[in-house]
Amino acid sequence: MQISIEGLAARHPAAAAGSTPALKPLTLAIQAGEQIAVIGPSGAGKTTLLHALACALKPAAGRLQLDGIDPWSLSVARLQKLRGRLFLAPQTPPLPPRQRVITSVLAARLPQQSLLASLRSLFYPTHIAEAEAALARFDLAGKLWDRVDRLSGGERQRVGLARALVSSARLWLVDEPLSSLDPSRVELAIDALTQSARDCGATLITTLHQVDVATRFPRVIGLRDGELQFDLPSHEVSRERLGALYAQHEHELLGAPPPGEDEPGGKQPAAMYCR
Ligand SMILES: Nc1ncnc2c1ncn2[C@@H]1O[C@H](COP(=O)(O)OP(=O)(O)OP(=O)(O)O)[C@@H](O)[C@H]1O
Ligand SMILES: [Mg+2]
């Protein structure tokens, strides 16, 4: 999916009146199939940008176009349909506790299904092989029938990522995909995510705190205080730029990844489906 934003600003509905917007006017052009990492200190506006692109937050100013269409000019029904082509993976995936992993993964298909098919799939899961292949990419194939509340935090986060693969979304917006992962799982998760997005031809935009991982993406966007600091090919993201981006927040730049609840294991590349 192609993205164009011009002077886009965003403000949270609950923000104090008169406060500065979480995202100040920003202009970006993103081609279909690009893979971009968004970095910056805490509070920079990274999540806000993802929510604005996911049409979960209406711009306070400026214009957003997805594949040449301004989503906010659409009728409610057409906007809802467009949202079915967007996949937002929050930092903590909203997985209902007693649900089985397979049901949680296949829920990502719901926007594309009829109401009847959706209700039926709650009781009699279909597309089992598709869900299993998506989970296998994240080394979770054995967890297909487990209950979500019996998974570790890192496993839940990887289930949240596997959902992208069974959606038919053309834009994957992924917020801090590594935040609950044990360092031994970081490579697996990021490789699975980027390779799967490539295989599916989806545009991938992910926020990251791990600068070393972010600079492996072809393009890196640096945000600070809601403003664009840079938008560069990763080989041009110098130490000096990173130092300026994280000035007074150096502990975030240098800090070790947060402790995870995940357990180590082998990588299992798996056959996958793209919808
Ligand atoms: N629901 C909300 N209501 C009001 N203000 C919010 C809300 N969510 C975020 N903000 C404010 O918007 C600004 C940007 O927040 P955002 O969550 O986008 O930052 P971030 O870069 O994702 O930070 P982090 O790295 O901590 O996740 C912050 O000042 C934050 O306090
Ligand atoms: Mg955030």
Structural class: alpha/beta
Order of helices and strands: EEEHEHEHHHHEHEHEEHH
Radius of gyration: 18 Å
Average pLDDT level: 87
How many β-strand stretches?
9
How would you characterize the largest beta sheet? 6 strands, mixed
Within the largest sheet, what's the order of strands? 5-6-7-3-8-9
Helical percent range?
25-40%
3D structure, described in words:
It is a single chain. The chain is of the alpha/beta class. Helices cover 32% and strands 20% of the residues. The protein has ten helices and nine strands. The chain has helices at 46-53, 76-83, 101-106, 115-123, 128-137, 153-166, 183-200, 211-214, 239-245, 250-254; strands at residues 3-10, 23-30, 35-39, 61-66, 86-89, 171-175, 203-207, 219-224, 227-233. The chain has a six-stranded mixed β-sheet, sandwiched between helices. It has a three-stranded antiparallel β-sheet with strand order 2-1-4. Helix 7 links the parallel strand 6 (171-175) and strand 7. The longest helix is centred in the C-terminal third of the chain and has 18 residues, at 183-200. Residues 46-47, 175, 207 line the site of magnesium ion.
Please give a handful of descriptors for the protein shown.
binds magnesium ion, alpha/beta, 275 residues, 9 strands, three-stranded antiparallel β-sheet, six-stranded mixed β-sheet, binds adenosine-5'-triphosphate
